[in-house]
Amino acid sequence: MIGFATKRRRRLDLRGAALGLVLGMGLTVACPSIASAQQICAADLNNNGDAADEGEQASCLATTSGAWLCPIQQVDCVADAVGQYSCPVGAQYACVVKSTGGPPACSPNQCADLATNPIVEEPPMDDPGTEPNGAIDADGNCLGQIEIFSGRGMRCRPPGLSTTFSNCCKDKGKIVKDGMGSSIGSIGTKIAVAKGVFTGMKAAYVAFKAGATASEAASAGAHALIVGLDPTSLAVSLAINFMMEFLFAGCDSQDMEAAMLRSSGMCHEIGSYCTSSFLGLCLQKARGNCCFNTKLGRIIQEQGRPQLKAFNGNLWGTAKKPMCRGFTPEEFQALDFSKIDLSEYYADIEARAQSDIRQDMGERVNAYLKAVNP
């Protein structure tokens, strides 16, 4: 059982030498030197097959003998009648004295050197989706492959090492609504919502990394998100609060993008996979998703794919490599819509209609008041 610990930080780059120490994990850990920060350990305490949960990684402690002691499951050694110490969890584990003093202690978990056993990191998914503006002929006919209700593969990360144990998949309520943007006027190849969310989240993340406050970064992200889109399709205040919370939590731009679309009901989760591992032990997981430009697109994809032979045996790909393509025109025509339950979407439309009316009335009243009281 081996693993890793890192500093709890608000900033988002936790790779390389910046990994350091994890603090506040329920462990009593002395503040080590830079050298000791490279000796790390981990254990699968809850027997779920990984060491990605809080308290399952730690920085090893220096000892007077030059060895290292893992603080996870550390216990004091027991002395016999002649003063010889032994480890109560197993005679094979050495009793050592910490450099900070105290009685001899031991741990069943072994330490490893980060310098010689580097952490393996998986980069975020890179799925641009289907290009919605392909070449056309003189008559306006699309020359490429038309995809209906196409999506993009994205990941978000639950609490773990790389996210400083914050939940970057957290559901924060519906922020993006179906029909966002005038560019989505047809059932065709558009994925403008997903790309619009990507633009906004990237702008917020870049601004935050450049030194902007979370509030400034979130405002920049919201501005980039609503440019060219119908502002009534976006809960701007919720989007700003969402970005501020996720930036402070240590989430990256794809975490935020996926979480916002997931919260809005536009993603199908495929499963989990490991994004950060050390000597074969997983330290950080991610949830792979196919995210679509509308909630309606997600519903039809989920219920339509099982009807088509082209998807038999491989409905969604894998969590690490999602298959998020849209339907071809022939596949779409072959769908039996009598077997597709759209009640979730109808309920959403009815609820949204009332809220949109109230929002529109409020905006009109505010605009009037500003006009008559400049």
Shape: elongated
Low-confidence stretches: 1-37, 180-190
From the N-terminal CA to the C-terminal CA, the straight-line distance is 67 Å
Could you give the order of strands across the largest sheet? 10-12-13-11
Q: Main beta sheet: strand number and arrangement?
A: 4 strands, antiparallel
Overview of this protein structure:
The protein is of the alpha+beta class and 374 residues long. α1 runs antiparallel to α2, α1 packs across α4 (253-263) and α2 (214-226) packs across α3 (236-249). The protein has 7 helices and 13 strands. The strands form 5 sheets. Strands 10-12-13-11 form a 4-stranded antiparallel beta sheet. The chain has a 3-stranded antiparallel beta sheet with strand order 2-1-9, with no helix packed on it. β12 and β13 form a beta hairpin. The radius of gyration is 26 Å and the shape is elongated. The longest helix has 30 residues, at 343-372. It folds into 3 domains: 1-117, no CATH class; 120-337, no CATH class; 342-374.
Short description:
With 374 residues, the protein is of the alpha+beta class. The strands form 5 sheets. A 4-stranded antiparallel beta sheet has the order 10-12-13-11.
List keywords for this structure.
disordered N terminus; 374 residues; 3 domains; elongated; alpha+beta; 13 strands; 7 helices; four-stranded antiparallel β-sheet
